[in-house]
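Minimal example, chain plus adenosine-5'-triphosphate.
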Amino acid sequence: MTPNPNSEADSSAGIAQTLTKPPKERMAMMSISLPSDFESTSKTKLAESSSGKFFTQNNPKLVPSFDRGVIVEGGQVRGDELTVGKILGTGAFCEVREISAITLQRLPEAPDHFEATESFIPQHKRLSTTSVEGGNDSHEVDEAGFPVNGIFTTKEQIRKYMSTYCLRRGDDEEDKELHARYALKQLKVTDDEKKIRQGLIDLSIEAQFLACLNHPNIIKMRGLAGKPFSPDFGIVLDRLYMTLEDKIDFWKEEKKNALGKSLCGCLGIGLDKVTRDGLKFQAIAVAYDLSCAMRYIAGHNLVYRDTKPQNAGFDVRGDVKLFDFGFIKELTKNLYDKDSGQYNLTPHTGSMPYMSPEVLTGKPYGKPSDVFSFGVLLWEMFHQKFAFYHFDRRDYVDVVVRRNYRPPIDHSLPIMIRTIIKESWDEDPAKRPTFERIAILLKAEYQAMASGAMLGHSERLIDKSARSFRAHLRNADERLNEAIGEAI
Ligand SMILES: Nc1ncnc2c1ncn2[C@@H]1O[C@H](COP(=O)(O)OP(=O)(O)OP(=O)(O)O)[C@@H](O)[C@H]1O
Ligand SMILES: [Mg+2]
């Protein structure tokens, strides 16, 4: 395989000099000793969560493991195949960093690392090869650096490949930097043992599902890192460049700018409407892609349980991807509640302003709850605001759940969009549409807009908007660096 000229990572370079040790606080967390039965109880929980049909019907992908350093005598950390860079984002439990180099410490022919990671994969399953159609020797790669026409048959091959193609050059002429292709999601540093135990189980369940999920609008997990069931455990994901929350902010800014210009004189007249239409078109495209991801999840009898703009992001090509699968659950027969036709699942799961009334009030729930959250997300995408801004828990229960309040829907939105939003957040779960219906309606709206006269004059603006979106990405990166610099 020819080394990628874009990559700075040299897997054969002297290891000791190139390694970046995990920061002190993480080392301290890594040395926390968890209860001796933690590993066995976690494995039981993992086995339970993978006992349904989803895992018998979907082959896990070939997922390699990477060393995150081991603690040796004197508390020193020896070795670390992953060099991590800046923080890309943090959630309630985890932090995500870019991977700036992968420095392999074993020869390619050495056996795969960490047999223990097999415990993430249901035992009865054979690992499927990570394949990309074809099988010839082409070196063409997809957005994550994988061969378009190649098949990986061993984990070591994938490790070598990822190490070589770990960085990519920017697409824009002005952008001379190398960018990380992968990101590492690990627990946030904490000394709260309970949080560590819960976080590790959630992250392991996430890894288990991601190994079997396969959809173009769902984030791809490319590897596992560190020792399973220990605080240095992590998952290697494709790196995303912006969350949907950031994108909504960006749309808001674009709309404001266009309005400003249209008020500034005759040259700007009409610009506001054209920009609004262009932005609506972008939002419909993103909404459609996300509805396809949700349709895929619901089609496998799974509930995602954490739909929100912070859990969707955009890859290097600008395609939207759903991520953060810590709360995903299979709706198995033993959880079914005959009276309600829903399932007995943990209440209050997810993020409050997107939670359906039945999740918040502890009733049985299921797929319609994901639809409710999707409805709130759609409202936010098309209004560029938080639907329940300034609502604390009590307000939400009182106003949204008890009094059935929903924010007004903009009359200038296409009727199809208004209908989907209205139906999706119906208080009665049985009246909400399925993701199948939502995807069909969004596709129809997308096609109508794409073929309509409107696009003729706004195409140029959509292009312009995409260009300024890329510039905005770079600015966002710079702002983040500054903020981190200030915080340190
Ligand atoms: N693959 C990725 N590439 C870039 N940034 C990412 C990636 N995955 C996650 N992030 C960033 O990190 C943040 C936290 O990630 P994630 O939502 O997976 O963590 P979490 O702790 O499970 O979150 P939550 O608070 O929703 O439970 C995201 O909101 C996003 O900003
Ligand atoms: Mg999240």
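The chain has a mean pLDDT of 80. The pocket of adenosine-5'-triphosphate (ligand 1) is lined by residues 88-94, 96, 183, 185, 219, 237-240, 243, 306, 310-311, 323-324, 326 (CB under 6 Å).
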